[in-house]
Write a structure and sequence with these properties.
The protein has helices at about 1-15, 120-125, 265-270; strands at about 20-25, 25-30, 35-45, 45-50, 55-60, 65, 75-80, 85, 90-95, 95-100, 105-115, 130-135, 140-145, 150-155, 160-165, 170-175, 180, 190-195, 195, 205-210, 210-215, 220-225, 230-235, 240-245, 250-255, 255-260. About 10% of the residues lie in helices and about 55% in strands. It contains three helices and 26 strands.
Length: about 290
């Protein structure tokens, strides 16, 4: 059993290229695989590796800070979420307020606005363009540059980051009961004027305005429609869509309906496929 534990420990060391050293119950540091001490043991803190840098935590694991590869602490241990650098900036969630530090430890975006609770990765993603997703009292949302410039003004009911299966992140915004999509830099993909927009799948999404549906890509180009022929459209890729009318399904390919009158369709299973092949099984429930 001890041999097995030692082997697992060695695998973990190789996989992360760093090891934790603990000289007492309340001191933790970092060494590399050569045995070189990267960060001297510190009292009351622990480390989590994030690429070539480290997230600090308190001994209870409730608060987080950030330090660079040399062990220099960049942000205080005060964040409710783990901290990591994006575009040489580190976002911090402090009591549900978002602040941003540069890598010199300077607070460049003060803790003034509320942070989205949608998720760490999607919430911090706009930092790639020096932008911050934030709100007032969780009621009106905006996208601000770290210098305070309003990229998307405080007039949205909600803005969240949506992650596609390709791990690309886009902003889904809601305003006056309408919905649209934006890039992380604030540029428009689909204007905020639709009643419904599905999630992007294989770089396309279905959009509904009134009683008409269409299919758009990530450039905002309309690939199909608008049409009131169907009650819903589920795009599988840029030119193949499952369409529903009165709970009867059809398959549209290259803008032509090639299968119709299907009473049952497992859309979720089909949507798991990254690439759509010519042969698709559609089951009639008769």
């Amino acid at each position: 059993m001890k041999k097995l534990i030692f082997i697992v420990f060695c695998i973990l060391l190789v996989s992360c290229a760093y090891a934790y050293i603990e000289r007492s119950e309340y001191k933790c540091g970092i060494i590399d695989l050569t045995g070189k001490e990267i960060i001297q043991p510190k009292a009351g803190v622990y480390f989590e590796t994030i690429g070539d840098s480290f997230c600090l935590t308190d001994k209870d694991g409730d608060k987080y800070g950030y330090c660079d590869i040399t062990g220099k602490q960049i942000t205080p241990i005060e964040s409710d979420w783990p901290c990591y650098p994006i575009n040489n900036l580190v976002a911090v969630n402090k009591n549900q307020k978002i602040g941003v530090y540069d890598l010199k430890g300077k607070l460049v975006f003060p803790f003034k606005y509320d942070i989205t609770t949608w998720g760490t990765v999607t919430s911090y993603a706009p930092l790639k363009y020096n932008n911050v997703l934030c709100s007032y009292d969780d009621e009106v949302w905006a996208l601000l540059n770290i210098n305070g410039k309003k990229i998307l003004p405080f007039e949205y009911e909600f803005i969240r980051g949506d992650c596609t299966q390709d791990l690309d992140i886009y902003l889904k915004a809601f305003k006056n009961d309408k919905v649209g999509y934006y890039n992380l830099d604030g540029s428009v993909i689909i204007p905020c004027e639709y009643d419904e927009i599905g999630e992007f799948h294989n770089k396309v999404a279905s959009c509904k305005k009134g009683n008409k549906w269409c299919v758009k890509n990530l450039k905002g180009e309309t690939l199909y429609g608008p049409t009131d022929k169907y009650d819903a459209i589920y795009p599988l890729n840029t030119n193949v869509y499952i369409c529903k009318k009165n709970n009867i399904y059809s398959l549209v390919k290259d803008r032509k309906e090639i299968i119709s009158g299907v009473k049952y369709c497992n859309i979720e299973e089909l949507c798991k496929e990254k690439e759509f092949v010519d042969y698709i099984c559609l089951k009639d429930n008769d």
